Every structure is written in C-alpha cells, then in structure tokens.
Write the structure tokens for this entry.
Amino acid sequence: MTPKIEVRDFNFFYGESKVLHSIELDIPEKQVTALIGPSGCGKSTFLRSINRMNDIIAGARAEGRIAIDGQDLYAPGVDVVSLRRRIGMVFQKSNPFPKSIYENIAYGLRIGGVKDRRVIDETVERSLRRAALWDEVKDRLGRSALALSGGQQQRLCIARALAVDPDVLLMDEPASALDPIATQKIEELVYELKNNYTIVIVTHNMQQAARVSDRTAFFMLGKLVEYNETRTIFMNPGQKLTEDYITGRFG
Amino acid sequence: MRHFDREIEELKELLLRMGAMVEEQINESIRALLERDSAVAQRVIDADSDVDRMELVIDQHTIELIATMQPAAVDLRFVATAMKITPDLERIADLAVDVCERAIELNAEPPLKPLMDIPRLARIAQDMVRQSLDAFVRRDATLAREVIARDDEVDRLTEQSFRELLTYMLEDSKNISRAIRLTFIGKYFERIADGATNICEMVVYLVEGKVIKHSNEPS
C-alpha cells in the first residue's frame, strides 16, 4: 500500500541545534497515527513539519523529504497556502475567531473565493456535523464562537479545519486542555473522522494514543525510536526504551 | 455508541459464539453416549480444536482491549469476566471430549445397564451451562445464583450414580471396566456443572462487583 505521507531521512534544525534526526516513516491513509514521547522529543516539531508550520520560525531549517501522495512538500515552488488547505491543523488550545459560529466555518471558504451562499451554508452544516457539533449549535449559528464551552470550541476548530476539505488532519494535543467528557467526545470524533481523513495526532496522554490510534510512533531526543501498530507498541514493544516509556519507568 | 462499547460488544459476540460451540459439544456428547453413536462421538472429538482456537482469539482480544482501552469499573469487570470464563468454557468442551472418548470405549462392549442417573445429571449440567451463558448475556445475577444453587443436586446425583455403579462392580468383576468408565462420565458431567458454577460466580462479580466464590454466601 502506498503511504499517504512518506518521510525519508528528515532532519530539522532550529538554528545550529538539530532537533529531528533522520526520521523515516510511512503514514497510511485513513488511519490515525499517534506521535508520543517525552517533552522536547521532537514530536510536535515533526507534526508541524508536515504542513510546514515551522517555516515561520526564524532560523528553522528542514532537510530530507516529506511527501504527501508522492509530492515533496519541501520542493521548490510548493504553494504553502494550498498545502495547508490539504493538510489541516488543530491546536492544543482552541482558537476560534472572535466571530460567529457560522463565520468561523465560512471564513476559510470566503478567503478561498467561494461566494455562493448555498454552498457556504451546506459546507457549514456538513463540517459541523462531521465535527459532531451540529446538534448543539444549529439554533445559534449567529452567536459568538467564544460563548461556546472549551470542548465545543475545540470541535468548532475541527469543523473549521474540515470546511476547506483537507485530506490530512494534524492534531497537536487536541484534548489536553479539556475535561474527561469533552476529551471523550474529541476521541470519538477522531475515531469517526478516520473514515474520511488521514489523521496524525500528538498526545502527551499515552492512554489516549492507545485508545484512538491505529499506529503509534515513539519519539525521544529527536529520534524515532519505534513505529508500529498501536496494539503492538502497547502489548509488546520491540524496544526497551519504548517499554520503559509506556510503562512509566523513565528516569 | 462509544467506540469502546463497540469493542465490548464484539468481545461479547465472540464469547457467545464460543458458548454456542461449547453447548453444541455437550449436546452431541450426550447424544453420542445415549445413542451409543461412536461417529457422533468422533465428530465431537474432532471439533474440539475449533473451541481451542476460539479461546486463543478471545484471549488476544481481551488483552488488546486492556492495552488500548484501559477499561474501568463495570467495563473492567466485563473484560476480567471474559478472561476468566473463557478457560472455563474451554475446559467444559474438553470434558465433552472426555465423555465421547469413554463413550467410544463403552460402545466396544454391550451396555452394562440402562442409564438412569447419568442422563439426568448430563441434562442438568447442560442446562446449567446454557443458563450460565444466559445470565452472562443478560447480566442477570439472580439467575446466576439460581444456577449455582443447582450444583448441590448435581453433586448428589453424581454420588448416587457412583454408589449404584459400585454395586455392579462388587457383583461381577467383568463389570468393572464399564462401571469405571461410567463413573468417569458421571464425574465429567459434575465438572461441567462446576464450570457453569464458576461462570455464574463471575457473572455475579460482573453485575455486583462482589466476589462470591470460596465463600458461603447464601444463594
């Protein structure tokens, strides 16, 4: 099976300091891949490399190859804006625009040049449905997004990312600021979304990785230690380091 | 439905499938014995590997569930119950095979006597297994306790059957090999009933979180 995202000898630097060392992995389509590891292991840097979010950091530099559907993301001439349409992102802290619920979703379409009101209406509804938020907000689409609860705001951000019809969804600890019920809703959502999207999720919560992902990559000190099916990682990891980390025997 | 609930449902389906296989094995072993049909007995013996495979599938599934889902409270008790009743079911199926092996040996000789206590014992044990699985599916602790209570009747019938067979052995030493085989068969059904009792104890644990085995809790 050809991978959705192919990573080969990928290195990343912040100035002189090398933070990712020769990462190699294949991320399969329409599955959930979790990136786990201790703080500073490089998992978030790696996640942000997948839609070139790190480009905006001064002195940051990438080497090697990350390709989506065979197309090198770091090749000269790649349009980063259209790349980020294909590869949506959801952050740890929900960041809705200070606009209405409706406008939060419609925004990406409008700046993409969509004017047809009917198309926008349909997309707003579809995106909110896919993010499992529609039933909770359908009667108050004109109200400010900032009035939503934290968990709802996070699902709104997911809906916003879905509105521009990406193939890949990157999630950087999407539930770490939420209570257990809101967390469970996000996890259920991730589980549903993988039918249509390729999802890469960074999480500090190992149990969450175990619950939601099909494959898990364990990073440490900028290196990919082990990458395998999640059940293998959690039932019988191949590396002692992985075992020590997931059983909490570090240090 | 939560993703986790779907996983639990799947595990339940597997357990029920294994339960149905085991019930069928008991049923056929009784038929092999009562109808003196060695071909049926042989089929039961051959089908045992299917039950064994099912045990491995369920083991794998439960361990995966624990590793990936971190079940808690009633979910944890369900997974623990699954892990503990699977070997009981497997053991019950092995006992049905033992019955069939003795049945084939008995069929090589004329019948010792018309069977009386053993068929009753067999039916009760079979019924207990079926009800233990019902109790599990319906999470019915009351039914589970009723099944456990029947174990005394089984013990009594086993003892009664043994005493009768002993008289045949005392009467004529040519009866001994057949009477011993029938004694074994009585014991196998008694152990099948024990397996059903174990399952029911786990059902009470599943539903109420109470451990009732090795204790004298009035049923």
